Amino acid sequence: MDLPQTQTLQLSLERGVLTVTLNRPEAKNALSPTMIAELTGVFDAVRASADVRAVILRGAGGHFCAGGDLKEMMAGGLKPPGAGEADPIVEYSRRFGRMLHKASTLPAVVIAICEGAVLGGGFGLACVSDIAFAHAEAKFGLPETTRGLPPAQIAPFVVERIGLTQARRLCLTGAQFRGTRALELGLVHEVFTAEDELQVKLADTLKQVLECAPHANAVTKEIILGVAQRDMDVLLDQAAHKFAACVRGTEAPEGILAFMQKRKPKWANA
């Protein structure tokens, strides 16, 4: 596999294992449009290659991913599209959802290393992994609703990962929790407290993965993911339009501004 050129990702392929490091540490690896596009391109390349057996997702600088880059999203403006024009906010939201769906359905085994901030879109990436490790003190959460937004493209994958009951609570409260609780919820499979401990666990897992036949693993994933038998693209299309409506509503501008000003939004002070 020829590794694509990327600005926001570091890529390393060794013995069938592709390590993808989200590399915007100054922004806690928040998902910019460029990063979303580059991740999509990498996942497409993995799908087209027989060289990659496993994909490791990790973040640079001690954080996995702090979610979507709200500053870049808001920079595009909130003006509704004209007649016959594509809605840029819908397109932004759907590009993110398509990237998550591609990661979820990769024939290769996807392993997420969750450290530091695992929020919003980063939480979504953890949910579409096949295997996830978390630092015991990693901070997980879905803060979208505290900023006036729905976790539109993330919520379906959260439900698939941990079930409807827990997803409702997490999505509707914006609650944050640590890696040990993520293990209890079934969001991750193992926790670690130090890098050497992680490397032992990761090496053991990769050994097991590489002992499985690659095509058998790919087919097995396809079967498992087909259990729900629902059209994810239709669901995500609908969610993208709902997301755009919320962005242009009364809550999102206040929620995002409050987040950037490091204060509570108005509804939190009621």
Number of helices: 11
Instruction: Please give the number of β-strands.
Output: 9
| Content of β-strand | 15-25%
* CATH class category label: Alpha Beta
Given the helix and strand composition, which structural class is it? Answer: alpha/beta
Radius of gyration, whole Å: 18 Å
SSE string, helix = H, strand = E? EEHEHHEEHEEHHEHEHHHH
Shape: globular
CATH topology name? 2-enoyl-CoA Hydratase, Chain A, domain 1
| Assembly form of the protein | single chain
Q: How do the strands line up in the largest sheet?
A: 1-2-3-4-6-9
- Ends distance: 55 Å
- The mean pLDDT is 93
What ranges have pLDDT less than 50 throughout 5 or more consecutive residues? Answer: none
- Biggest pleated-sheet summary: 6 strands, mixed
Q: Give the helix level as a range of percent.
A: 40-55%
Keywords:
270 residues; alpha/beta; 2-enoyl-CoA Hydratase, Chain A, domain 1; 6-stranded mixed β-sheet; 3-stranded mixed β-sheet; 11 helices; 15% strand; globular; Enoyl-CoA_hydra_C; catalytic activity; ClpP/crotonase-like_dom_sf
3D structure, described in words:
The protein has 270 residues and is α/β, with parallel strands linked by helices. The protein has helices at 33-47, 70-75, 88-104, 121-127, 155-162, 164-173, 179-185, 195-210, 214-225, 232-247, 251-260, and strands at 9-14, 17-22, 54-59, 109-114, 117-119, 131-135, 139-141, 176-178, 190-192. The strands form two sheets. Strands 1-2-3-4-6-9 form a six-stranded mixed beta sheet, sandwiched between helices. Helix 1 runs parallel beside helix 3, helix 3 runs antiparallel to helix 10 and helix 5 (155-162) packs across helix 6 (164-173). The longest helix has 17 residues, at 88-104. The radius of gyration is 18 Å and the shape is globular.
